[in-house]
Design brief:
Elements lengths: L6 E7 L3 E7 L5 E8 L11 E2 L1 H19 L4 E8 L4 E5 L9 E2 L7 H9 L3 H8 L8 H11 L3 H6 L3 E5 H9 L6 E3 H4 L5 E2 L4 E2 L1 H7 L8 E3 L2 E6 L11 E7 H10 L5 E6 L3 E7 L10 E7 L4 E9 L3 H10 L7 H13 L8 E3 L17 E3 L7 H23 L9 E5 L6 H11 L3 E3 L5 H15 L14 E3 L3 H22 L3
Parallel strand pairs: 1-5, 5-14, 9-12, 15-21, 21-22
Antiparallel strand pairs: 1-2, 2-3, 4-7, 6-8, 10-11, 13-14, 15-16, 16-18, 17-18, 19-20, 22-23
């Protein structure tokens, strides 16, 4: 590798966008590109995406960023990806079995319910750290095999690959030479033995997943392979990091500092905090691998919420605000909730495909509770934004059950965090500082940091001067006390949403 190669390009393949950024030797973003992605909902509760379009968009943004900085300056690639989304493909051709089943998809709810009825949840939680829910990849992989003729037999013969999106992208970026995933993505499948850090035979048998169909598990920071056979992208660029997007954001916030809880506000939300040791003793939350930095495994405690930004998007469409230009819409989402003193008793429970942590009720359905004649659009928009803060607060309360948990600050990132009103409400509700990173590409930066660690052969702590700065929202403790009544009323509304099952 020539000495002038200093650029790291990080791909963040998310649910609604594929983004790529280029970072120079100082960690500054010098180029970026994004492309939107489509989501299909062919039936109630079914959410899927085209794996081929995910790949095409990812290649396009990486190619454009490489063109912007010059291929001769690129030292390495890194990938962060939407998690739990499962895809299968034929090893010989690289063609997918069908659509990628999104992390939001609840088509396996009946199977998950059957596992609970059989009394298997405690065993699964002990081994994998994850509660039984259609969110996780294993039941989706099982569904893909069941839905494809002769697929399970082919998988046993090693002719079908099953993976999360990181392994799908790596396979194609390397021309089929590398079939791997990292520890963070593996820990979201419900097939990883959390203590041993390897695929678990009992879980493979339970979900009917042949071991030969699964990727090799590697540290999040390290060599995964080299680019090969890609139009417009030179051969031989090393891929030095892969990590789930929420884990990457936690790494980029503070390298896993104790007491710093991370909340990513996106289509859904991940609330995660580093903990030690690995243990699954909080029933309503997931214990997961936060990352493997090439030297050690770091564990995390996490709550997954399927509908946060998605809840606001639904309300925006339902109230006609979606007709506004993007800049005007962003302004409206900041001014409308502040234009009214309250929601007039309205609570929006966005269980559009069920509830995630800490409720784990895929049969729950969304509701708008407390409507009265005086309720206007501003009240509904405010209720949608408040629903984000309540859901995140519910997860933080559940986290307090863990003996290693402390809360010094909530570190936040993602598109909705640009809303200052929302951030202040979150700080007041929790009664703790909310520290916002205004870097939109935080997950990509986390992946890039792990790639730079592998490139330079340095310790994680030596990456600290690359970390982005934060803007702090201090809580109003008098308002914090008043908001507890609203939070209690929200929880009553959640119970009403659950009673519809």
């Amino acid at each position: 590798m020539s000495l002038n190669k200093e650029i790291i390009i990080a791909l963040d393949e998310g649910t609604t966008n594929a983004k790529a950024i280029a970072l120079d030797a100082r960690g500054a973003v010098v180029a970026k590109c994004a492309r939107p992605l489509n989501i299909q909902t062919p039936r109630e509760g079914w959410v899927e995406q085209s794996g081929e379009l995910l790949l095409a968009a990812s290649l396009a943004v990486v190619r454009q960023v490489i063109d912007a900085v010059g291929a001769h300056n690129v030292a390495a690639l890194a990938i962060s990806n939407q998690r739990e989304t499962a895809i299968g493909w034929y090893r010989a051709s690289g063609q997918p079995l069908g659509p990628a089943l999104s992390w939001q998809c609840s088509r396996t709810a009946d199977f998950c319910h059957a596992l609970r009825e059989q009394g298997r949840e405690a065993e699964i939680k002990t081994v994998t750290g994850l509660p039984v829910a259609p969110l996780f990849s294993a039941s989706k992989m099982r569904w893909l095999l069941d839905a494809t003729p002769n697929a399970r037999a082919l998988a046993k013969q090693g002719e079908i690959c099953l993976g999360t999106i990181d392994s799908w992208l790596l396979w194609h970026f390397t021309g089929g030479a590398a079939f791997c995933c990292d520890y963070s993505n593996a820990s979201r499948t419900q097939l990883l033995n959390l203590q041993r850090g390897e695929w678990d035979d009992d879980m493979l048998e339970l979900f009917g997943i042949p071991r030969r169909a699964l990727p090799e598990i590697r540290p999040s920071s390290g060599l995964f392979g080299h680019t090969q056979g890609l139009a417009g992208i030179p051969d031989g660029i090393p891929l030095l990091a892969m990590i789930g997007d929420s884990h990457a954001a936690l790494f980029a916030h503070g390298l896993g500092a104790a007491g710093c809880v991370k909340a990513t506000y996106g289509t859904g939300s991940s609330v995660m905090v580093p903990v030690a040791p690995a243990q699954g003793d909080v029933k309503s939350l997931a214990t997961t691998v936060a990352w493997h930095d090439g030297e050690k495994l770091v564990y995390g405690l996490e709550g997954n919420i399927p509908h946060t930004g998605d809840a606001v998007a639904w309300m925006v469409e339902s109230t006609g605000l979606s007709e506004l230009p993007e800049a005007e819409l962003a302004q409206a989402l900041s001014t409308l909730p502040a234009s009214v003193d309250s929601t007039l008793g309205v609570y929006f429970v966005p269980a559009l495909t069920g509830l995630g942590a800490p409720w784990w009720d895929e049969q729950a359905r969304g509701l708008i509770h407390g409507l009265s004649r005086g309720v206007k659009r501003a009240h509904l928009i405010r209720a949608a934004l408040e629903s984000i803060t309540y859901q995140i607060a519910d997860v933080v309360v559940a986290m307090r059950q863990h003996g290693d948990f402390t809360l010094k600050a909530l570190m936040v990132d993602g598109g909705p965090t640009k809303n200052d009103w929302l951030m202040q409400y979150q700080a007041d509700l929790l009664g703790c500082p909310v520290m916002r990173s205004d870097v939109a590409e935080l997950s990509a930066i986390g992946a890039a940091l792990l790639a730079r660690k592998a490139l330079l052969h340095i310790d994680s702590e030596q990456l600290r001067h690359y970390l982005p700065e934060h803007i702090t929202f201090q809580p109003d403790m008098a308002r914090h006390g008043r908001l507890q009544k609203r939070w209690f009323a929200w929880q009553n509304a959640v119970q009403l949403a659950r009673s519809t099952k």
